[in-house]
Design goal:
- With 330 residues, this protein is α/β, with parallel strands linked by helices.
- It folds into two domains: 180 residues, 2-Layer Sandwich (60s Ribosomal Protein L30, Chain: A), CATH 3.30.1330; 138 residues, SPOUT methyltransferase, trefoil knot domain (Alpha/beta knot, 3-Layer(aba) Sandwich), CATH 3.40.1280.
- Helix content is 34%, strand content 18%.
- The protein has ten helices and 14 strands.
- The strands form four sheets. The chain has a five-stranded mixed sheet, sandwiched between helices. Strands 10-9-8-14-11 form a five-stranded parallel sheet, covered by helices on one side. Strands 5-7 form a two-stranded antiparallel ribbon.
- α1 crosses α2 and α4 packs antiparallel against α5.
- The longest helix has 19 residues.
- The chain starts with a helix and ends in a 5-residue tail after the last strand.
- This is tRNA/rRNA methyltransferase SpoU type domain-containing protein.
- It comes from Entomortierella chlamydospora.
- InterPro entries: Alpha/beta_knot_MTases (IPR029028), Ribosomal_eL30-like_sf (IPR029064), rRNA_Methyltransferase (IPR051259), SpoU_MeTrfase (IPR001537), tRNA_m1G_MTases_N (IPR029026).
- Pfam families: SpoU_methylase (PF00588).
Amino acid sequence: NPLVKRLERLRTSKEARQEEGHVLVQGIKTLEELASKGHHRIRTIGITFDEHNLPIRSPALDIVASVRRQELEDEGSNRGSSIAAKASAAATAAKSSQRRQEKIFQADQFVAMSRSLTTKILGTDSPSGEHEVWAEVVIPNYDHLFSIQDNTTTIDTTTTTTAVTPGFKVHNSTQRSKEVPLPQSPRTDIQRLLILDQILDPGNMGLIVRSAKAFSWDAAWHTPGTVDQYNNKVVRASRALCLDWPTKTGSWKELEKFVERKDLTLLVADMVPGWISDRAVSDAIPTSTSVQDNNDFNLYNLVWWNWPKSLPRTRVPERIALVMSSEHHG
């Protein structure tokens, strides 16, 4: 099946994700969180469906109920100006929404497929349940944060004909635009940048993303060779938070220009050499916010070589770029 092959390639190929600008996520909770944020465009929502194992249960049932509510709303709109018809459809949708706590999921298309096809799409590392939910999500456009002028890239949303195979059904949304801008992050500036150099393990990358989000780091810069932030294992380890963390991959030369343009003070996460630690102890370097101007070697237990000339010594820089690497790369 063409759709199954395409989605499987999204999971396994970085090139496919870059070409299409899409990524796969799994689980109803993840889907609910993405939908609630309002700026994520969902291309496809899929559920596991087995006609020999009825009835359909949650979480897949929540998706089916959402589609049905949208159909009822569309039917009410298509009946013209009949107030009674619209009121009836609205009342039916309202009752259904109350039963399902008004879980509304918007997508370009909805698909139902067998458990075996779902497993093929999601992989054996993500075992699918009997009533699984997954989605194909558009990667948000963060170009404006990294000073790239053209941030109005559009994606093709034309309907494609999918051959119907056993255990596979497609429901296309009735409201689909032909040209839609990529979802854009509401953030407008980067003040705290995390530079990730040669981070290779997807699990570690996922944990870094979650920690960085928790500590309010604005964005990440990946040097060449760093694991793809939208790698399937990174998506799972980060609980899909990677979709809300602006990222750019670029060379050190590009990074140098970007840091200078954004007026970011560069920091490096590394083990402090012994001779520096010994000097810090002997000099009794203070760590409070009350710092003398002549204390220019070690402030706040950090080694400084590039203190901003425009910044007084009474507080640490607020606009910073922190370089982190893996254990194998120093």
